[in-house]
């Protein structure tokens, strides 16, 4: 794939692009990765791909990382592995690569101020415990929700979610 604005992925990764080039492929990161035991994620290979191929942005495994930081803490070269993942994810979204599930979470955030808004079942559980049905978050403070919406509009998150 080619990037919309610039062809060089590493140059776009200001914080960690040059870090990735220090990788010596020892495999400590992938050997430490709990997610890699259960998913398609091979973090060493993903970083290698990032060095050579902007197609990494549409690689499903980019989203399999749980950001536990095991790999980053253990990397003998001190590479900001998780930071690189965050940068690649941000670039992917800027390129319009947004999975339907992620878009749904974004839409919930825009509408309710929560990625997981409270539902009837949880309201009933709260009441059974003697709590107010709604927690003291934007659920209880509509004016707070308006502030959240303003914040998201100021960083154009709302536009991002409406682009299909
Ligand atoms: S642990 Fe660090 S140096 Fe080793 S393969 Fe992973 S990123 Fe590269
Ligand atoms: S931060 Fe991500 S890539 Fe690193 S060990 Fe955890 S799940 Fe694996």
Automatic annotation (TrEMBL):
Keywords assigned by UniProt, alphabetized: 4Fe-4S, Iron, Iron-sulfur, Metal-binding, Methanogenesis, Oxidoreductase
PROSITE patterns per record: 4FE4S_FER_1, 4FE4S_FER_2
InterPro entries, alphabetized: 4Fe4S_Fe-S-bd, 4Fe4S_Fe_S_CS, CoB/CoM_hetero-S_Rdtase_csu, HdrC_iron-sulfur_subunit, Helical_ferredxn
Superkingdom of origin: Archaea
Example of a GO MF term: CoB--CoM heterodisulfide reductase activity
EC number: 1.8.98.1
Pfam families in alphabetical order: Fer4_8 (PF13183)
Residue span(s) of domain 4Fe-4S ferredoxin-type: 14-43
Coiled-coil annotated residue ranges, if any: none
Pathway: Cofactor metabolism; coenzyme M-coenzyme B heterodisulfide reduction; coenzyme B and coenzyme M from coenzyme M-coenzyme B heterodisulfide: step 1/1
Family stated for the protein in its record: Belongs to the HdrC family.
PANTHER family cross-referenced by the UniProt entry: IRON-SULFUR-BINDING OXIDOREDUCTASE FADF-RELATED (PTHR43255:SF1), IRON-SULFUR-BINDING OXIDOREDUCTASE FADF-RELATED-RELATED (PTHR43255)
Protein's UniProt name: CoB--CoM heterodisulfide reductase subunit C
Organism: Methanococcoides cohabitans
């Amino acid at each position: 794939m080619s990037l919309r604005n610039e062809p060089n992925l590493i140059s776009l990764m200001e914080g960690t692009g040059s870090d990735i080039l220090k990788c010596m492929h020892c495999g400590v990161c992938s050997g430490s990765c709990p997610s890699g035991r259960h998913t398609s994620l091979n973090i060493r290979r993903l970083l290698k791909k990032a060095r050579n191929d902007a197609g990494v942005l549409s690689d499903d495994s980019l989203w399999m990382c749980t950001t536990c930081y095991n790999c980053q803490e253990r990397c003998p070269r001190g590479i900001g592995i998780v930071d690189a993942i965050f940068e690649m994810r941000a670039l992917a979204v800027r390129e319009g690569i947004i999975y339907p599930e992620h878009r749904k979470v974004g839409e919930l955030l825009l509408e309710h101020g929560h990625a997981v808004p409270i539902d009837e079942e949880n309201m009933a559980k709260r009441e059974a415990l003697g709590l107010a049905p709604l927690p003291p978050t934007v659920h209880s403070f509509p004016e707070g929700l308006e502030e959240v919406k303003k914040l998201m509009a100021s960083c154009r998150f709302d536009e991002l979610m409406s682009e299909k």
